[in-house]
Write the structure tokens for this entry.
Amino acid sequence: MSVESVFDRLEPLLPRVSKPVQYVGGELNATVKEWDATSVRWALMYPDAYEVGLPNQGVMILYEILNELADVLAERTYAVWPDLEELMRENGIPQFTVDGHRPVGAFDVLGVSFATELGYTNLLSALDLAGIPLHAVDRTEQNPVVLAGGHAAFNPEPIADFIDAAVLGDGEESVLEITDAIRRWKDEGRPGGRDELLLRLAESGGVYVPKFYDVSYAEDGTIAEVVPNHERVPYRVFKRTTMELDEWPYPKQPLVPLAESVHERMSVEIFRGCTRGCRFCQAGMITRPVRERSPQGIGEMVQKGLEATGFEEVGLLSLSSADHSEIADVTKGLADRYEGSNTSLSLPSTRVDAFNVDLANELSRNGRRSGLTFAPEGGSERIRRVINKMVSEEDLIRTVSAAFANGWRQVKLYFMCGLPTEEDEDVLQIAEMAKEVIRAGRQVSGRKDIRCTISIGGFVPKPHTPFQWASQCDPDTVDERLRKLRQAVNSDRSLGRNIGMRYHDGKPSLVEGLLSRGDRRLGKVIERVWREGGRFDGWNEYFSYERWTTCAADELAALGIDVAWYTTRERTEHEILPWDHLDSGLDKEWLWADWQDALEAREQDDCRWTPCFDCGVCPTMGTDIEVGPSGRVLLPISPVGQGSPIQNPAL
């Protein structure tokens, strides 16, 4: 396949599509290398629109790590909107990278980072546009290795037909090892062809290659067994964990988008993992153990990132950023350093019980005081015990009262609907909580312009969590509970007019649930949906519930199963789950015991500060939870001086 740029053919089409700037590349800190000067070439894809994909930290980190190697080339590609897809098909233009506008089919690896299962159909569009056979079994040495990663790849079985391999967990070290394996295989003259390369990846135990595992099914539709079909392939594949985050200070040169993106800021991941034990949260479970970046490491990354980008906001990222054991020192040190500059700080995720006004004041010291966001997740205390989100209403009111008394005017609260054991009353309590927030805010501030927004998403049971056995709530029940909630919010107009309500109906959540706990039999459903026009299923304007349910009914009927079998059916203790051979480090018996605790509404403490609960991660990883004090202070500690590119971006 030609490696020449397709831009000369693409450019005349761009005036005919929406947001053409997202396809032109050339962002600040982007990298374009000479093709012939490199031996291994990666195309990195985020299977969604540019505006969502470009800020993705995972892709940005791997892009930089790979391009630091002299003989390795990495370029980026994103899903193209349907208007451009149609024109590309009419004009014979293949899926391209935005860096060199090279055909994706010419690369050695197409690495796809899935944050959500609703991106699966976009993968098929990219493969088809690239001229890569949809089915892995039909590919040859001339086609890229299609490699899946990201949180939604912890159960890659629904897309097993379409991918060659998957990596579970952190990618920093694994992409380098995969690169080494490809380099050696190519240097040796490609011995054994494509299968030998895939075997070399699979026998490491850190790369899952579906073709080397056979799945059989019992008469009741459940999985009978999953077994390797090659002697060089292990029975279980283990997740990868990057332990010393300070040794991986990426991205050092963050990309700056040309088009509008969902996050207009420079971000630093301050720690990885979570031990709070929220039973619904796949991210918190699969990223264990906690690994903290030191204050010194954070400070250096912030300084270099701001100088490299010109951004005026720094996001301190993690699953719950205020849980960093040295967060007070970090925020004060950064606030001191950038006081008087245009630089502001933000914590995108904050727990009620980790928040305090001193922390918030440090973050807003430069005068930018936006609303505060918290996630109680459940409306009643009972349901919060079920999901292990132990935040009392008293804690929430105390926290928001302190914030309102110190000048804040807006609070956003996140909840879920359709949680295990949930009843109408659990959801209606959300309205009462929001009203209490308004009352408390008015009382402590003496003002009437206090606002509270409640945002509600549908619960989706996820693999590798205690809720992986749970029955998913049907969309009609979710929608009815949300209707009753809106009525409850509006029942008191004097308070309700200050409460905003945002929610998604239950239908997209059911499809996400179908895919999240699916097996290989869903490959036919995904392909059928795609062939009938399925694209951008994470976007309301493109998602079609009817298309998904109709295609699923048609494809699954002959197998004696249906959508309900995958979604609203509760699993039994000893059922073989599609991902049981993929080891996230969590002990399945521990997950089951925690599921039983959930059904009894028994909470579990945070193991970071209490004795081990034997979830299995630390022994499996041969490590332990990492927390401060690190003994290292935030550097540099001197204020930003005149002449700094942070103080004077034009310099």
In short: The CA atoms of residues 226 and 386 lie 32 Å apart.
